[in-house]
Each structure stands twice: as C-alpha cells, then as structure tokens.
Specification:
It is built from 13 helices and no strands. Helices cover about 75% and strands about 0% of the residues. With about 300 residues, the protein is mainly α.
Length: about 300
C-alpha cells in the first residue's frame, strides 16, 4: 500500500506552498528593480528586513510561540541572518544595477546545484536518478536562456559578466542558508520567531554596512517605493520564506530549490512587459526545457536518499 502512495513532493501539502512561493518570488525581481535609484541598495535591504522581522515576531506572538533561544539558537539565527538576509540580498540588489531583473532571476535557477552539493556534503543526502535527470534537463534550458541573452546583448559583455558574477555570489550565500534550514539545529527551534530574529539580525548588519559605505539613511517617499517595501517585506519575505523553509524541511534543499527554475520564467515575462525583454525561439525553448526539468524532478519518488 505504501508503494502506491504518491511521493511527498507530489502532495498538495508541498505543491500548494511551492506554487505560492514561486508566484511570489517570480514577481519580486521587477519590484526590486524599482527600489534602485534614490535609495542605496544596502538601505533598501535594511528597510525590507526590518519590516519582515517585525512582521514575523508579531505573528509569532499571536501564535504563542516561544521566543527564548539558547546560545546555539542565537548563533544559528545570526548565521542565517548574515547569509540569507544580508549577503544574499545585498548581492541581488547590486546585480540588478548591471543586468535585467529577469537575468538575475535566471542565475538563481542555478541554486539547485550548490544546494544539492552542500546537502550531500553536510547532510549526507544523495540525489536520486530521476532528480539528476530533471536537473540536467532544467540546466540545459537555463543554458539556452543564457545563450539568448549573450546574442541579444553582445555589446555589453563586461557589464553582463559583472552582474552575473555578483548574482552568483548571492546564489552561494542563499544556498548556505537553505542547507542550514535542513539541519537538526533548525528543527530544534520554532521557525517563525527564529526567522524573525534572523531577519532583524540581518537588517542590523545591513544597516551597519550601509552606514559605513554610503552614509546616513536615505528614503524615497514615492508610493511605488513604499508599497514595494511592504510587499517585499511582508509578502515576499515574511510569508514566502516561512513557506519555503518549511518546504526545505519536508523535501530537502535540492528539491525545494526547483522553484528557482520556474521563477525566472515568470520574472522574464514581467521583464518583457516592463523592461523590454525580447523573447526568441531560443529563449522559448530554454523556458520550455526548464519547466520540463521541473516536472521530471518533482515526480521523483526518492529525491534525497
């Protein structure tokens, strides 16, 4: 009877949050783009995670979660705050100064690779054959999208390479945070208050870095900037990270990272509407392969053995 049961990753308890996170994060890249300009990137990241952290702690208080952390818990929260809510997002915002939001999102499709490698090294999780096949198909799709970008923007090669390099640094920081969420230490503490504390620690580091590098706080009172901050802080951070880190604890970091394969497709559709991104047969084929790889991988019965 157990053999007939669907794999955990095919259940509604996984697919529904997976879909919600994918849709939310697919829309964030274009919102981040609007955050750039008047306000230095480090201050925008700081404001975002102050909003997110306060939201998480208020939610935790409403749920009656315990807030007390021991030394190990504080160290875990600090490490998560540094990797996910400081390094990762500072790299993301800066990458978008050099390349389109869709292309930055595309780089994050590669998250499946370091996630799988780090999960193997630190958690002993082996990728199943079907997940390997799905990864291969998806990465072929990502490669076609990269090739399309290189063909349509040959004149700005150095700028593109710089943006891609910054985004890649963000990918590795995000991967470290992802694998942390799959450890026994993460499971030992209630997720919501720990995430809130980690977000506020990350925001504190962001503020210290911003003050040291660009000076006093700057704010943009345009309605789109303010609305974008609350969307990124509450929906794209407090809600989405809770769902995403919950997925990591259920299906592992390698498979959870597959939302990063479809997120770029959504981001590129929005980039088409708002940034003038132009599709080609090559880009369409890349997007189709990425989605096909996602379907194959999510049907794997034993993704991490």
């Amino acid at each position: 009877m157990n053999d007939a049961a669907p794999p955990r990753s095919a259940s509604a308890a996984v697919l529904v949050p997976f879909g919600i996170v994918t849709l939310i994060w697919g829309s964030t890249w274009i919102v981040i783009r609007d955050q750039l300009g008047v306000v230095p990137a480090s201050w925008s990241v700081t404001y975002r995670f102050v909003i997110a952290g306060v939201t998480m702690l208020a939610w935790a208080a409403m749920r009656g979660d315990r807030f007390a952390l021991d030394r190990r818990g504080w160290l875990f929260a600090a490490g998560l705050g540094l990797a996910q809510f400081c390094l990762n997002f500072n790299f993301v915002y800066r990458a978008e100064l050099h390349i389109t939001s869709g292309l930055v999102a595309l780089m994050y499709a590669l998250l499946i690779v370091p996630n799988a490698v780090l999960a193997r090294v630190f958690l002993g999780q082996r990728m199943g054959g079907q997940l390997l096949v799905g990864s291969g198909i998806a990465l072929c799709g990502v490669a076609l999208l990269f090739l399309h970008e290189a063909r349509v923007r040959p004149e700005s090669g150095s700028e593109v390479l710089l943006g891609l390099g910054i985004a890649l640094a963000g990918v590795f920081a995000a991967s470290a945070a992802n694998v942390m969420q799959a450890t026994p230490t993460a499971r030992a503490y209630p997720m919501v208050p720990v995430l809130g504390i980690a977000m506020l620690i990350g925001a504190t580091i962001d503020a210290a870095y911003a003050g040291a590098t660009v000076g006093a706080p700057v704010f943009d009172w345009r309605w789109s900037y303010v609305a974008g901050l609350f969307y990124l802080g509450i929906v794209a951070s407090a809600v989405a990270f809770t769902l995403y880190f919950g997925l990591i604890r259920v299906i592992g970091p390698a498979k959870a990272a597959y939302n990063g394969v479809i997120v770029p497709v959504i981001a590129m559709l929005l980039s088409t509407l708002f940034e003038g991104y132009r599709w080609s047969l090559l880009a369409g084929a890349g997007a189709a392969l990425a989605l096909a790889g996602l379907v194959v991988a999510l049907k794997a019965r034993r993704p991490n053995r």
